[in-house]
């Protein structure tokens, strides 16, 4: 029986036109690099953003923690400016899906490699409210280890009283989302093509399903719960 669905934010439930990774690219390239957006997406998507910077720099065999932290500080400043100007919307059918799940007593969790400040700003800009549209927000600020480690999912389970990861689905737009779900032991891991990674990239992480619109998750949940109750 599925009791909880954990959704990534940017690219999965939030449509921000890749502004995070475009901003990450800008902050890194201001230091004299020439990384493409595809490189930044391939290496950084889904990760806590300081770790994403480290991963991109490692493409050039650069391991420089002071540099990574300097870029990260600049990134946060640039992102605040970008979000003030950027139209932030939900991905198609996100609220409809959340309502359908919660109506069936399935918990809706948002989790993200963003820090708490950024994540809350996104939620507020869309107009979602905890307890009405979703049940819990878990961010990189809440855990010691970030994706692909399962800490955010395990924390959500603990806080919402779900003891068995076989009752959890993870949905995300990057391979690291899928890896996170698998590491947590989630029963079903779903890739979605609305964000950072392509169908082929998502496929490389071996999710149980790949969807193109959030509403496609409903029949997956329904089928799973019918099988469980059979």
Please, could you describe this protein's structure?
A six-stranded parallel sheet has the order 5-4-1-6-7-8, sandwiched between helices. Helix content is 47%, strand content 14%. Helix 1 crosses helix 2, helix 1 packs across helix 4 (65-85) and helix 3 (49-57) packs across helix 4. It has two domains: 4-16 and 89-229, Rossmann fold (3-Layer(aba) Sandwich); 19-85, DNA polymerase, domain 1 (Orthogonal Bundle). With 230 residues, it is an alpha/beta fold. Helix 8 (175-184) links the parallel strand 6 and strand 7 (188-192). The model has no long low-confidence stretch (mean pLDDT 92). It contains ten helices and eight strands. Pfam families: HAD_2. This is Phosphonatase-like hydrolase. It comes from Larkinella bovis. InterPro entries: HAD-like_hydrolase_sf, HAD-like_sf, HAD-SF_hydro_IA, HAD_2, HAD_sf, PGP-like_dom2, PhnX-like.
């Amino acid at each position: 029986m599925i009791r909880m669905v954990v959704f990534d934010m940017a690219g999965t439930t939030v449509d921000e036109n890749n502004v995070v990774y475009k901003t990450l690219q800008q902050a890194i390239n201001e230091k004299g690099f020439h990384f493409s957006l595809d490189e930044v997406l391939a290496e950084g998507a889904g990760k806590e953003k300081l770790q994403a910077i480290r991963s991109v720099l490692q493409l050039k065999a650069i391991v420089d923690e002071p540099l990574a932290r300097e870029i990260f500080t600049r990134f946060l400043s640039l992102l605040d400016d970008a979000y003030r100007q950027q139209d932030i919307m939900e991905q198609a059918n996100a609220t409809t899906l959340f309502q359908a799940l919660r109506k069936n007593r399935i918990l809706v969790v948002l989790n993200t490699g963003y820090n708490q400040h950024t994540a809350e700003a996104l939620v507020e800009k869309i107009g979602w409210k905890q307890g009405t549209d979703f049940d819990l927000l878990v961010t990189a600020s809440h855990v010691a280890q970030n994706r692909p480690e399962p800490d955010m999912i395990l924390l959500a389970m603990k806080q919402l009283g779900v003891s068995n990861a076989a009752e959890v689905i993870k949905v995300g737009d990057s391979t690291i989302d899928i890896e996170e779900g698998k590491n947590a032991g989630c029963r079903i891991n779903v890739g979605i093509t609305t964000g950072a990674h392509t169908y082929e990239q998502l496929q490389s992480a071996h999710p149980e399903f790949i969807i193109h619109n959030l509403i496609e998750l409903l029949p997956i949940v329904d089928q799973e719960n019918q099988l469980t109750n059979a």
